[in-house]
Write a structure and sequence with these properties.
By secondary structure, the chain is an alpha/beta fold. 33% of the residues lie in helices and 20% in strands. The protein has an 8-stranded mixed β-sheet with strand order 5-4-3-2-1-10-11-12, with helices on both faces. A 4-stranded antiparallel β-sheet has the order 6-7-9-8, covered by helices on one side. The structure holds ligand L263DTV3 and magnesium ion. Magnesium ion binds next to loops. It comes from Rhizobium johnstonii (strain DSM 114642 / LMG 32736 / 3841) (Rhizobium leguminosarum bv. viciae).
Length: 259
């Protein structure tokens, strides 16, 4: 994987490149991650703030792109809709396991066994003060941002719960979080499903994300001759060929394109 240190594009070059998107609005499709990309990271999952102007800017930019703007997130689809209401963008939730595109809506329900697993995990987490369990229906996240001292024990236990869940779930690592997500689809798989129908068909992808889960959509963008932009300070290796050092810069690009 290319490391960010060798990314072809730095902040200025990336912003310059993205500013040219609207010179060919029928050529591009934008796929945007939410946490850490559109929104600043916060101490807890529900402490995030959506800048007041952002939903309308995304709506205006989507219109300029003929609707070819999708949110691709580890959040549930319903949670993403709540964040950006009154708009309901094409969206892939739970890291790609549920999707709303021109073909309709496909969601996924938790099995009784997975419900029982979430109850057991929640009960066990009582022993790790500060660890937050985020129930996302067919997925569950164990957050240790407020209790980093529990990272190691959580890693061990979430590997155990992944074994219990079986092959229909996958352990997804992220920023101070271990998640069990449906294994059936990644963010990269979600992009391929968006490309099967208008308005995304035959367009080149612009993918912007900040975390491990976004790497699969960066790979699709690279393979399709599009753009892959990793957000955040230089750190973890990435196959993204460009970078933006903060979600504030991402919002600046969105605001400029939506103007
Ligand atoms: O794919 P994304 O849209 O980036 O969602 C990834 C996960 O984001 C959330 O967790 C992360 O953001 C939280 C709020 O800023 C932060 O407290 C946490 O430490 C981060 O891991 C969300 O809670 C998860 O469900 C998403 O999968
Ligand atoms: Mg993210």
């Amino acid at each position: 994987m290319q490391s960010l240190e060798n990314a072809v594009q730095d902040d200025d070059a990336t912003q310059e490149m993205l500013s040219l998107v609207l010179e060919e609005p029928d050529h591009w499709a934008m796929f945007l991650d939410i946490d850490g990309t559109l929104l600043n990271l916060a101490p807890t999952p529900d402490a995030i703030e959506v800048p007041e102007a952002l939903p309308g800017q995304l709506h205006r930019l989507s219109n300029k792109l003929g609707g070819a703007l999708a949110l691709v997130t580890g959040r549930s689809l319903a949670y993403a809709d709540e964040l950006f209401k009154p708009f309901a963008f094409p969206t892939a939730g739970l890291h790609g396991a549920e999707i709303r595109n021109a073909a309709g809506m496909q969601t996924i329900e938790a099995t009784p066994e997975f419900q029982a697993l979430k109850h057991a995990l929640t009960a066990e987490a009582e022993h790790y003060p500060g660890v937050l369990i985020e129930d996302k229906g067919a997925a569950v996240a164990a957050h240790y941002r407020l209790a980093p001292e529990y990272e190691k024990v959580l890693e061990e236990r979430m590997h155990h719960y992944a074994e219990v869940a079986g092959s229909n779930w996958a352990l997804q690592l992220g920023k101070m979080v271990f998640e069990l997500r449906p294994a059936r689809s990644s963010k990269g798989d979600a992009l391929e499903r968006f490309f099967q129908s208008d308005p995304f068909k035959n367009r080149s992808p612009i993918t912007i994300g900040d975390d491990l889960t976004d790497e699969s959509m960066f790979a699709i963008a690279n393979a399709r001759g599009g753009l892959s932009v990793r957000v955040g300070a230089i750190g973890a290796p990435s196959c993204a060929t460009s970078r933006l050092s903060s979600s504030a810069l991402v919002r600046n690009v969105i605001a400029a394109l939506a103007a």
